[in-house]
Each structure stands twice: as structure tokens, then as C-alpha cells.
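Journal club prep — side note

Before the paper discussion, L.F. wants everyone to see what a predicted structure for a comparable chain looks like in C-alpha cell form. Sequence:
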Amino acid sequence: MRLTLPFDVRPEPGLPVPPYWEAHLDPSAAAEPPGGGERLLGAAGAYWARRGLPVDRPHALAAPGAEPLLLALLAATDGDPVLARPAAAWQAPLVRLLRRPVHTVPAPAEGGGVPDPFALLEAVRRARAEGGSPRLLVLSAADDPSGTVSPPELLHETCEAAAEAGLMIVSDETYSDTLHHHDTVLLSPAEMLPDHTVVLTDLGATLVPITVPAALARFPATAHGAAWRERAAAALAAMRAVLPGPVAAATSYVLTEPAEVTDHTAAANRLHARVGAAAYRAVTDGGALCRPPKAGFQLYPDLGVPGLYARQAEERLTAALGRPVLGGHRFGDDPTEPRVRIDTGVLLGATETERRTALTAADPVAVPHVAAGLAALTSAFAELRGPGAATGPAGSGSRGRGA
């Protein structure tokens, strides 16, 4: 079968639109300037300050989604980007729009979207010896596609390697506010290399509805950072990539994180943790190998079937589940390995009513449509692996190894 991809390859959080979002969409709000207006950037600065990364307005930027924002960042700097492998499916196509080569470096088995530091140094050395110009490292400690988190020690070593190689860092921290457990330690490269790191976050994972493109960037508090910010804002202006006034007004409100917003995001993270853990059990009970997710609403199992390629796994699981499932080749991974991304948010329902029921349930895994989706996962994976692959119902049996 031929899989027709949606325009958006991001994982689906599956959350209902909170009432406060609609209430703060101000239809009379004036159009935003490229890069964001004073109120929005002031709220963005406070948002980062609460996370230990203070920033002033001349070093912050807003855009209608992470895609135009990363494109503007790339257009505003010279050199080629280095991506982790696997990496978010939307990143490499943007680089190719600018006709620049994409250098990829494998991420270690520990998880997260941070390249191995030794492999990074070797890849940069080899690329430069061959005439390439790697200048920018794009990474994500809380990862799409795997939903795992890079250990702080690994992130520190990779940041040291990036500094040694003379690379600027773009840290995609879209999923940093979606940790499943409070004891998970997640650091930002901006804490380690503040003068060499741009932080990018797509707010659709947490604060704004996924259908509303809104993203922020935080630049180093240096003359170089301010100049990069101005060039990126000019690129956004050239693309007419600005937030509509009503969206900017609502985004400014949620960035202040009043109690109704933080209550909603906390409930969403509890839901993602419960359903993510259940989905992990479902796919491993179906015989797949997988690391348990620690952030976001996605996991990245390996079917472990010799001779089954990523594209074949994608097509068969898409047909079995009746919704798009992306193979590892979409994320720059080895196309001969049967790895796929499973979005757990789609298990929460197809309607606002179903999603709200899942969000407010004391035991979301027991909600009938959620339980049915989890059972379908186990059946689909077991069928792909052949007779006898399943080890029992979700919640028992094998938990699998790290993929």
C-alpha cells in the first residue's frame, strides 16, 4: 500500500482544547511584527526565567511554528547542520530546502536525541576533510521519535565535543515540559554553553493546541546572539511568517502560566505517563523491543523481525491500526531496521468528548476506547511478528529490551 503522509509529521498529543484558550483569542488584537511583539516576547522571557534561563526581549523570537523558525535560523547562519540519528522527521527536509547537506550522527543506546560525542567529533572531522562546512548542531535531549531523555552526563560530553568542534547548538526543547516523572533529570545545553546555544520550543506540545502553530526561540545574550536573532527575524519577515494577533494574545496569556494553565499541563503529563507506560507494555507484549518513554506522547519500538524493513513495517502497521504509523526511515534511521514511531496521543480519542473523558478519568487506561486502542497495538505487533509472538495481555509478560 502507499502511505499518504499528513503535512504534519509531529506526534499527536490527543488533548482537548482547554476552555481558557478560546477565551483569550482576542479578535481585536493587532497583527504581530515579525519575530513577535512586546507583550508576547515579555511573556516568553518570563516563561524561560521560570526554567532558569532568563532572557531579555532583544534575544527572544516568536514564529508560527517550529518549522519556519528553524528555517529562519538556518537561513540566518552559514554552514551545514548536524542532526542526531534518528531525529524529528520535520528537520532534515527544511535543511534540504536550503540545498545544504545534512550530516547525521547516531544517538547512543541510552536514549534521547543527542549524538554520541566521539562519533560527533569524527563526523565533523571527516566532513570538513571532504570539503563540508558543519557549523550547527541540532539536538533534542527530550526526543522525538523515541520519547526518551538523554542522560545529563551524555549531554555534557556532547556539548563539550560541540564546543571543541566549533559548533553552535540549536536545542529543540519542545518536549522538555512533558516529563512523565519528576525524578527524571533533564538539562539544557543553554545551561552548559549559554553563549553558544539557541533554544527552540514548539508550544504545540504543551501550552497551545497542536493545530495552532506557535514556537519560540531564545538566543544567547551576546552581540552574536542579538545579530543572529535579527537576521532570523528578517527571514521570518521575508516569509511573512508571523503569528496572527488573536493567536499571539492567547499565547501571551498561556506563557504566563496561571493556575488553570499549569493544572491542565500537569494533568496532561500524568495522562501521557499512564498511557505511555501502557503502550510500552502493549508493544513489548506484542514481541517488540522498546525503551520506555520518559517524555512526550510517542515511543519508538523495534519489531525485531529479520528481513522486515522500516517502510514495510510502516505500511503494515498503518493498515493494521487504520492510522499513519511512521517508519524509522522518516527520522533518518537505518531503513533496513523495522523501527516505527507509535503516537500514544491518538489512543486518547478521536473527538473532543473522548479526549476530555481520557484526560479527566481516574484510570485513563481503563477507559473503553483507550483500552481498545492498547489491545489493538498488542495484536498488530504480534501479528507482524508471527504466531506466538505475544506474551500476554498488556500489563504482563515481557517488557522488552532497549531498541
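L.F.'s comment for the group: The radius of gyration is 21 Å. Keep this in mind when we get to the figures.
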